[in-house]
Design a protein that fits this description.
Radius of gyration: 21 Å
Bound molecules: flavin-adenine dinucleotide
Shape: globular
Helix content: 25-40%
Number of helices: 12
Structural class: alpha/beta
Distance between the termini: 39 Å
Strand content: 15-25%
Amino acid sequence: MSSYSREKPKGVGRRQFLQLSGGTTLAAAAATIGAPGIASAAISGRTNRAADLPASKGPRCVVVGGGASGATIAKYLKKENPDFDVVMVEPNALYMSCFLSNLWLDELIDLATLQHSFCDAARNGGYVWLQGKLIDLDREAKRAYTSEGYIDYQYVVLAPGIDYNYASIGVADPEMVVAMQQSFPAGFKPGSEHLSIKAKLDQFEGGVFLTTVPTGNYRCLPAPYERVCMIANYFQKNKISGKVLLLDPGEQPFAPKAPGFLAAFSELYGDIIDYQPSTMIQSVDPMAKTVTTEFDTIEFEDAAIYPRVRAAKLIEDLGLANPESPQMEADIDVYRYNVKGDTTCYVTGDCRPMPYSKSGNTANSEGHYVAKVIAAVEAGSDIDWVSPQTICYSMVNGEPEEAIYVKAKYDHDTFGFTDVELDNDRSAANGAATHEWGAGLYRDMF
Ligand SMILES: Cc1cc2nc3c(=O)[nH]c(=O)nc-3n(C[C@H](O)[C@H](O)[C@H](O)COP(=O)(O)OP(=O)(O)OC[C@H]3O[C@@H](n4cnc5c(N)ncnc54)[C@H](O)[C@@H]3O)c2cc1C
């Protein structure tokens, strides 16, 4: 079993494992992470053309990725030190958030709530948005190669998020992988996947709508459980006679919120949600529309299938992944986020190796801290470690809107949860707070 895995060892109960996992990961990580080295990037795509940017007016920081992590860091680097010349490299034309997207599936918010302009974010934050993609990195020369030309930098932050690992659910043939991505997208990377799932729900004519929980430390641990509640609520409201099947390799939903989710499943959606815990997927046939578990082969009419996640392939391509990490997460100083031995290059957000919740609030609060770390390095000083903060509301009912809630920080030595606040009694107050929390996070990022 890996240090970052959510898979549990034999003979250890799931709750016990979740408690243990935070406590053992750091030691295991420290033991497996190898010595650093400023290796040249493994990929090519280099160009001799400089990106079309204004001349740098101060230490230049290139931030790769405009998600909860990158957008926060770009903004807060400027706040920490207005002399920084910050360039955020992000290929998407607009930001569309994953967080709150389950509410949109149930039409509790509109699509515009999820969408934000990178133009406005950059202008408000005093940085430059380059619409492009990082292709290669030369850390010795401190040059970032993008689809729009190269950028010389003093600091670079890599926050490219996640990719999916379809082989984890027995789908390895490229033709089948493409069929999975296009016909049954997971909806854990924003944009087209979310639009596709919403259209599926709107057109659903009954039968089994399949959803899944991955193994490992996947993006947003409570989100698959929140999603089935929102889909079930949508089916109820629109009198769609279908079942929402949730296959979960764990013995119960995400541990802190398990009582709240289980109560919602049985009290609100007993005739709609079919929750099957302790069920490991062995393979999926997207053509036949069947999923095979250890016990059974199940037919489905439509699906949103969430495989195991891994750090964005960019991290591995740049030679920055820890080869011991089953999710190919970055090999960084777990307190300072820099690539070991290189205080000019940082990796943040959902491709970090620490077993924190891969969530927007975590990435945002961590981003505040990483901006301070880089500002301190530039000033030749140091700062104390600050824990990220996970704040997570899960909407479980749509009529009336009711949510459950957990808030926690992380222990310095074990990275397990500390200072936990938990409310598993679904309430309208938590429902309203969900919207306020989302609005606050957008305000802080943009
Ligand atoms: C359905 C769902 C519900 C969720 N609910 C919650 C919730 O309630 N609360 C919560 O806190 N979190 C929630 N999350 C999790 C949260 O959305 C993510 O954890 C968070 O967005 C991760 O931020 P990130 O910046 O690491 O990655 P991302 O937001 O994925 O950003 C990565 C960015 O990098 C860019 N990129 C990738 N490669 C390159 C490259 N080569 N060059 C340049 N840019 C690149 C991508 O285009 C992308 O914009 C939810 C997620 C989902 C899917």
